[in-house]
Every structure is written in C-alpha cells, then in structure tokens.
Amino acid sequence: MIEIDGVSKRYNGQGKLAVDNLSIKIEAGEICVFIGPSGCGKSTTLRMINRMIEPSNGTIKIDGEDITKSNPDKLRMRIGYVIQQIGLLPHKTVGENIAIVPRLYGWPKELIEKRVVELLDTIGLDAAVEKDKYPSQLSGGQMQRVGVARAMAVDPSIMLMDEPFGAVDPIARTRLQDEFLRLQKNMKKTICFVTHDIDEAIKMGDKIAIFNEGKLVQFDTPSNILTNPAGDFVKDFIGSDRLAKRLKLISAGEIAKRIDSLSGCEMMHAIEHTASIQETMSFMIEKDAEYVGVINKGKLSGMISFADIRSYMNKRAGV
Ligand SMILES: Nc1ncnc2c1ncn2[C@@H]1O[C@H](COP(=O)(O)OP(=O)(O)OP(=O)(O)O)[C@@H](O)[C@H]1O
Ligand SMILES: [Mg+2]
Predict the structure, then answer these.
(1) Is 160 part of a structural domain of the chain?
(2) Are residues 271 and 215 in the same domain?
C-alpha cells in the first residue's frame, strides 16, 4: 500500500505549487490511475513515490514505512518505473535495456538472459528477432513495450507507469491495455498509472485520481466518478457521454433476470454474462431483439431486455 499524506511540491523558483497538499491511499494490488490536464502534477507525484523528486512537505509511506527512511537507490530497485518518454538507452540493445535492474541486483548472467526472453514473450515481442536490436530500430509501440518489460524485470511489487501506452495507435493501445490487464490479474501489483485518456483511465483503473492544478479533485472508482462527478471540472473532463461510458463498466450478468423456466427460451439470441451492457445493446440492435439470453458457464442463466437496462440505469442516480 502507498500512503501519500499532505504532500506538496514547490519546484525551486516557482511561485505555484506543482502538487498541492495531496493525500491519497493506493491499496495493494490495485491500479490507481492519475489523470488531469497537462501540468497538473501527475508526473511529479509519481516521481515523489520513488524519490526521484523530494516532496517539499508531507510524508509518503510504502507498506507503512516512511520512504525518506530508506535508501533511494534501494527503494528505486524495488519499484518498477516506466517513464513518460520511454527512456530506453539508445546505445544499449533491447535485451541490455531490460537487463539493467537485474544486473544492478547482481543476478547471474543465465538467469538474466532467461528473464529477458520471458519478458519479451510476455509483452508480445519475439526475443529471437528483437532482443539484439537497438531502440532506434523499433517502432514507438515496440519501444513502449520494452519500457514496460524493463520496469517489470525484477518483478517489483509496485509499478509507476507514466503514460506507458501514450505513443501507440488506438488498435495497438487497446491490445496493450488488454494484455496488461490480463497480466495484472495474476501479478496483483500495486500500480500508479498516468494517462491523458479518460477512456483508458476508466478501463484500467480500480480507482481514478483526477487532478487539476496540483490538487486532487476526485478520487474514486470509475463507476462512482461517472455516476457522481464532483463538480463541473470533472463533468467536463469525463465528457458528455458519461452514460455511454458507464454502459461499458456494467456486465450483462449484473442486470440479467434469472430464468426459472427454459420453455421457449431455446430460440433466443444469447450473449455471455461477462459482456458489457454496451456490447449487449449493440448485439440486441444488430439482432433486432427486444431481449436476449445471458449465458454463464455454457448455460442459459438469465435474460435481459431494453426495459431492464433502462430501469437499472435509472435506479442509479446521476444520469
Ligand atoms: N523540474 C521542474 N522545474 C520546475 N518546474 C517543473 C519541473 N517539472 C515540472 N514542473 C512544473 O510543475 C508542474 C507539474 O508538472 P508535471 O510534470 O508533474 O505535470 P504532468 O501532470 O505530468 O503534465 P503532463 O501531462 O504534461 O505530463 C507544471 O507546472 C510544470 O511546469
Ligand atoms: Mg507528465
């Protein structure tokens, strides 16, 4: 767990605080997304967690321990960091870049080589082809993947990721996000993830922290933020389509009514219970169906109609 308590940062010679009295608790095993306009203090906050920048005020604790009490180099070695501009060393190959922290740890050569191949495989790059290339021989998206692999090299329990998927096109980005979420299901790392993209924040975050001019404006789950945005700044920031965004977060299984009798249901179009309501509605429109069946573990377990969706959404405030 990361506890940030009353932290401010004023850079030398700057009148304004870059980070203004920030208090936030990031639970172990969760992805906390930092989002807000350019210059609102996201990167500064991230860099205070691994002591690349020292706070002007306040304390930061990791698992209950004040980080100013620990050696900054040791601290940084147990925190993976994906920097905003990817930051691969240009004169080192992909493999050497990934090996930097394991080398600092003094891992044996064979173990490092094995880990590099394993990580390249994890991020979807072919080690045989890519390992000995230099960063300049990679695409922006590939570089970004290598940056993520490098941060994961010694399997740190905390990862700080500053716009890790910023440099890739939307399709590759969706794939990277999906892969990363799949990995995180098993890794259960504590992650601070910076993005500019509200859709990415909603998809990736267990919690979202919205910043403006160095201040935390709202900190909550994506669903709560979409349902109850704290004021006009957040409302504008998340956009006028917040209902449509919420439809992506609710699953068909959540709304479906249980079917007690199967008679007549065999003919119904059906969708997996994990499908989002957005997908369910697209499916219903495509099939020109007023209601569809919902399948759980290969069995028809419920059904859902447009009226069910409407009443579910209306019951929850804020629409
Ligand atoms: N080294 C520095 N010296 C002085 N001011 C700085 C320094 N680094 C950042 N700042 C200022 O602190 C504020 C916060 O910067 P920060 O990099 O944390 O923003 P950010 O939210 O990450 O922005 P972006 O989305 O553009 O990356 C900005 O006003 C920035 O100009
Ligand atoms: Mg930044």
Answers:
(1) yes
(2) no
The CB of 14 under 6 Å from ligand 1? The reply is: yes
Cβ–Cβ under 8 Å, residues 278 and 255? no
**Structure tokens of 316?**
């929850």
Q: How far is the CA of 84 from the centre of ligand 2 (A)?
A: 6
The pTM of the full predicted model, rounded to 2 decimals, is 0.86
58 and 154 housed in the same domain: yes
Q: Whole-angstrom Cα distance, residue 268 to residue 240?
A: 34
pLDDT of 44-72, one tens digit each?
A: 999 999 999 999 999 999 999 999 888 88
List the CATH number of the domain containing 279: 3.10.580.10
Whether residues 294 and 157 fall in one domain: no
What are the C-alpha distances in Å from 11 to residues 53, 69, 85, 160, 212?
Answer: 10, 22, 21, 21, 17
Task: Give the C-alpha separation, 14 to 18, whole Å.
Answer: 9
Residue 245 lies in a domain: no
Q: How many CB atoms lie within 10 A of CB 179?
A: 15
- Whether the per-residue pLDDT at 279 is higher than 60: the answer is yes
CB atoms within 10 A of CB 86: 22
Contact predicate 9/53, CB 8 Å? yes
CATH number, residue 38: 3.40.50.300
Q: Is the CB of 18 within 6 Å of ligand 1? A: yes
Q: Which domain holds residue 275?
A: 250-315
- Looking at the structure, tell me whether residues 228 and 277 fall in a common domain: no
In this prediction, residue 155 has a pLDDT band, given cuts at 50, 70 and 90, of: confident
Domain count for the chain: 2
Query: Does the C-beta of 40 come closer than 6 Å to ligand 1?
Result: yes
Look up residue 291 and give its two tokens.
């209601």
